[in-house]
User: Which sequence fits this backbone?
């Protein structure tokens, strides 16, 4: 009979999980023993919020991530990161050590306990799709398979709590029966397809808008094939950035409502047949609700809903929808030579570097080997004008928008994909939350390039009419000097030329590098400038 | 009519709250406007876990703490710290900004949202005594008073969520009626008192064991008076350390089961009348269940339960119990000159510094002006052999035991009590979690002395049979060098003499200092050595 924790690690390893992220603790000590004996390498982080972010980023590349933490002080310190993975549909397995089944009976006040022994599981119920305590060897296998099925099918985190006296318990194996999931009704799908093909045939200006679910469900190549057959312009949301390769000749840029480039906005909003594939209709994706999308011209498909114009087609699985559409669209629309790419709103900075100048240099530097992770704040809006090359080369917390994602995200991403060079673009606020995790970067011998926007402020709050508020200021720090103390290389950057030089030196370094880019607090990215102007207009009007 | 948020801040200020801890965000921007206009100073931290710890430490000195955060990414990132405050009965008010009532109706996918708009409140329900969203101006005042009453009466955190469109809403004031709380039954109290006085009269070796609730309910002077009338030895638990002044002639030391000093253990365990006042019966307080306390000789009183021997007296409030006992005990037991103080198990280190040598120097340095905060790990066990002077001069996360408490705790403590000099004793693991918060220390001009036990390992996990496990190692870092980058002073300490010198230099510095004390990974505090030996014996036997 298999043993509980070793069995879980074996199943996870079969799913492609080679690393776990977390911190041990006494209630998780035996669990870590089992982990260390497994095929999965435990990455010990400095702080649990970082462990959650790293596992999330890892999942976004590998398709599944793993965090292993201790009870109470460990698990409850990771709630925010897991909430982000839930909100943005990143499948994770969270394993938490816990007091033993026997201890729970005899001792009421064990350390790390809050209200009841069930407190942590109840908290996780709010931020995962499935949460349970594996407290019975007879039901454990069933629960483990259910958790994995849920994570893989719905792309959400699941939580398993393991009492420390059951880590090596022998468990009864059950026949693995996948839970009943939504199945596609063939007639519904055919009817939907017929309607879409008719729409496409009549359409003068069809456009594809790609969202993150295309990536979560591994449907990138099908969407590329679809776009190439239709020969139509393709754009993406912020959260779906780089799901469609940004270097593809049909790619025109990020759609971001009025905050985005007018050319993309017009192309999307004036389209008479907009195929929205795997798009979350969130405020961030819709330019903070400045989008003007006409449902009468739209096809909307996600894992939760397929709709054409104002009517819905239930009983269609997203994967089946995309596959069928991709296989059956054989009507090239117009010659792709007329498709123009959005021009990033950036320009070289001759003197002191600006956000625009920074993005210009970054775009020059990014190549097909780059894996870019951005934190949250102006660095998220800035991504509008960054051009990556290959598909799946951009990661961010683009809807849940949790600051601090950047540095731990780069660790997860770099371990999941060791063949590309990771770059993190982080604000000073985000850096101060989780930057200490560079100690783990150093320990692992990773070599990401960290670009810190050092402007001494929460720029996104400043532009909301709070230029002078003390509470939007961020403590100053010499990030370049800090880099050396943490075991990396530091570069202070004041001009575009210095940034160019620092990037090319950092590329050659055998450690991580921090580029401390001194940006004026009044200077923000083109997208945030645009939002700021809209905000000012709204305040006046 | 008063306005919602300004009204809350006014009530909190009346309770002695002069500082709040947190980070703004767009959903909390208006709330921060109201905060900045109030009498309370907003302290902007670098990371929400730190904001919760700082507010907790502040509360432990001032009697009430305040954290103000944004929705989702802010609130959910502070769950662990608030869970700790709940577990250790530290009263806090958590205010969270949130999407407006109107926004919630029209937009489903606002950023920072997890499952539903109620997710965060539901999570907080698990780690606070009372949680509610102030979404109606007609009921807001009632809920606000209820929250404050609960926090103050039961010494637990409470959570109020404030939709951003109601921050300045005019609210209807209600007549403030305190909720029905446990009232003392006079006959019950008299019967209990009579029984205790009879026990004391017969007793040959009565002892008082003081716990943290004596401090939470502000009953220190009553307990000191009681002890002086009875002339009996007094000791405390780890969590209750320094609630009774450690320099008091009747104080004998920390009771910690078999992990503690044998003299204290014998005094407590052989007592024929043990008065346990405000003691949590937790594993940490009881030397990881190595305590042997005989209920037949014990009086046990907390806010939750009053018991003598094996029977309980319900309907007695803790405050009334302590006051009555203190006022009515007029039977001096024996001459306090026979009371000997526990000798700390420490000695100067002639060569390379040891934990024992470190504690020796620290005890020499501590004076009546010292406010000591320890983190969790061996530094918590080490507190057994540290001697503070005045009452209420020691803070730690002694039951919930969350690493990372030290540095943010020192910020809350120092702001709550600016007249004493704060010292933090932290391990390298705890430092790496929250040490970046020294940027806030610098910004505020605070001058704590941070002593880092730099041993490159989770020492408490190592001693549990895991000396060689890779996953108990901590990344190396030059903490002294880091101090300068963060704006303070750093000292590398290899010997006892160097520690003595560094402490006296740090005392004169006008910034914070980090003392990077290089301890061998095999060397742990006397209390942890003792636990380690017990653990090894258990493994063998």
Assistant:
């Amino acid at each position: 009979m298999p043993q509980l924790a070793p069995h879980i690690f074996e199943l996870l390893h079969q799913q492609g999980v080679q690393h776990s992220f977390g911190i041990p603790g006494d209630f998780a000590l035996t669990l870590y023993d089992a982990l260390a004996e497994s095929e999965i390498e435990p990455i010990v982080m400095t702080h649990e919020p970082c462990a959650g972010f790293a596992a999330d980023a890892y999942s976004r590349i590998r398709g599944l991530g793993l965090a292993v933490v201790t009870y109470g002080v460990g698990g409850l310190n990771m709630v925010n990161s897991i909430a982000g993975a839930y909100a943005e549909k990143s499948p994770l397995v969270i394993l938490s050590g816990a007091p033993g089944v026997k201890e729970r009976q005899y001792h009421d006040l064990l350390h790390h306990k809050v209200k009841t022994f069930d407190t942590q599981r109840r908290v996780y119920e709010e931020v995962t799709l499935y949460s349970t305590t594996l407290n019975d060897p007879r039901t454990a296998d069933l629960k483990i398979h259910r958790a994995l099925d849920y994570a893989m099918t719905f792309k959400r985190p699941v939580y398993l709590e393991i009492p420390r006296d059951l880590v090596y318990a022998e468990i009864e194996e059950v026949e693995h029966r996948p839970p009943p999931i939504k199945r596609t009704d063939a007639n519904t799908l055919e009817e939907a397809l017929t309607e879409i093909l008719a729409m496409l045939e009549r359409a003068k200006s069809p456009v594809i808008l790609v969202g993150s679910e295309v990536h979560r469900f591994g449907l990138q190549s099908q969407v590329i094939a679809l776009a190439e057959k239709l020969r139509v312009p393709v754009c993406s949301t912020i959260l779906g950035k780089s799901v469609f390769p940004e270097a593809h000749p049909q790619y025109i840029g990020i759609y971001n409502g009025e905050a985005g480039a007018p050319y993309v906005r017009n192309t999307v909003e004036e389209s008479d047949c907009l195929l929205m594939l795997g798009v979350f209709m969130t405020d961030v994706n819709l330019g903070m609700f400045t989008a003007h999308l006409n449902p009468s011209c739209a096809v909307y498909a996600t894992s939760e809903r397929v709709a054409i114009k104002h009517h819905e087609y239930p009983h269609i699985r997203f994967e089946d929808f995309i596959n069928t559409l991709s296989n059956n669209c054989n009507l090239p629309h117009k010659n792709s030579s007329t498709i123009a790419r959005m021009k990033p709103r950036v320009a070289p900075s001759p003197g002191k570097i600006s956000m625009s100048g920074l993005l210009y240099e970054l775009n020059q530097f990014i190549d097909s080997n780059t894996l870019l992770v951005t934190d949250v704040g102006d660095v998220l809006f800035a991504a509008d004008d960054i051009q990556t090359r290959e598909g799946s080369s951009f990661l961010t917390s683009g809807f849940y928008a949790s600051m601090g994602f950047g540095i731990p995200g780069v660790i997860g991403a770099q371990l999941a994909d060791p063949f590309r060079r990771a770059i993190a673009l982080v604000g000073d606020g985000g850096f101060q939350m989780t930057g200490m995790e560079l100690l783990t970067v150093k320990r692992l011998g990773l070599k990401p390039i960290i670009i810190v926007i050092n402007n001494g402020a929460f720029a996104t709050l400043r532009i909301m009419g709070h230029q002078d508020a003390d509470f939007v200021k961020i403590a100053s720090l010499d990030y370049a000097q800090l880099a050396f103390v943490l075991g990396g290389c530091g570069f202070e950057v004041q001009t575009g030329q210095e940034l160019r030089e620092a990037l090319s030196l950092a590329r050659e370094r055998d450690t991580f590098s921090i580029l401390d880019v001194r940006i004026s607090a009044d200077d923000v990215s083109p997208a945030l400038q645009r939002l700021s102007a809209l905000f000012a207009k709204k305040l006046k009007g």
Notes: Chain B touches chain A through 78 residues (CB under 8 Å). Chain B has 21 helices and 19 strands.
